[in-house]
Amino acid sequence: MDLSFLNPERLWVLAVIPFLVLLYVWALRRKSRTGMRFTNTAVLGRVVPRQSQWRRHLAVAMSLLSLITLVLAWSRPNGVDRVPRERATVVLVIDVSRSMAATDIAPNRLEAAQQLSIDFIDELPEQYNVAVVSMSGSPATRLPPTTDRTLARRAIDALALQDSTAVGDAIYVALSAIQMAPRSDDGSVAPGAIVLLSDGQNTAGRAPAQAAQQAEADGVPIHTIAYGTDNGSVDLDGVRERVPPDRELMQQIAQETGGTYASAESAGDLSRVYNSIRSSVGYEEVLTETTATWAGYGLAFAVVAALAAVSLGARWP
């Protein structure tokens, strides 16, 4: 867990810990040298009861750990927690270029993607808006943001193959779709995320890198899926052509925008990828003060240290 502190200047107190460790080591060595002066150890043993070395070390170690954790608590640490989003807009961008007719994923790439995309949106929280964008040479918003899952299913089912692939233009269309989402009472737009599924290379339109930069500037992560296998092929104008996905491009887009990247070479892979993305878009990371948690750790270490110290002075039968 990543930590930050509201009062980091208090962490300087931790500088005393190494000096306390050195003091303890010095005390142990001094005691060892003092014990060497007594030759009649039997008499010494009756006068001074023998103490357990490991309990002494445990008491000191727990005391130091208690001090460390209490100083951390005093510095008011913040942790990053994942909390469910109350609302969001998810734009599903699905490639409908001719390469989606490849049958390396049964019955073909498009039909498999349609079914699993429907499963994906059905399991999103009901209050989330869903939009659908088709990606071809002329990307278009097939469904503006809505919470109506029936309309979303129909929009996905109605997708049909078209020519070319304009990844950059599709991202711009998706960003525009996010702005169509209903605004809250204070006029703010719900947080948006784009899920982009593509099985080929960019062949038209504006540069994907430029579009990714715009998404990054808008604070919209793009979760990309490189869909299909390297052996997938289709007949284009009577010529059999291989249509491998452009994994490098998908990785670059995800990295630029703070989204996630995954490769899906089967229906099972795509299902698992969608499950992972659903978790990503369904939660947000927020800073929460964890002072009480660290204070609890300090108390627990202090209790163990106290018990170890008491056991050192107790005379066991």
From TrEMBL:
Keywords: Cell membrane, Membrane, Transmembrane, Transmembrane helix. Pfam families: BatA, VWA_2. Residues 89-277 form the VWFA domain. The chain crosses the membrane at residues 12-28, 58-75, 294-314. The keyword Ligase does not apply. The keyword Cell membrane applies. Gene3D superfamilies: von Willebrand factor, type A domain (3.40.50.410). SMART domains: VWA (SM00327). This is VWA domain-containing protein. It comes from Propioniciclava soli. The lineage of its organism: Bacteria, Bacillati, Actinomycetota, Actinomycetes, Propionibacteriales.
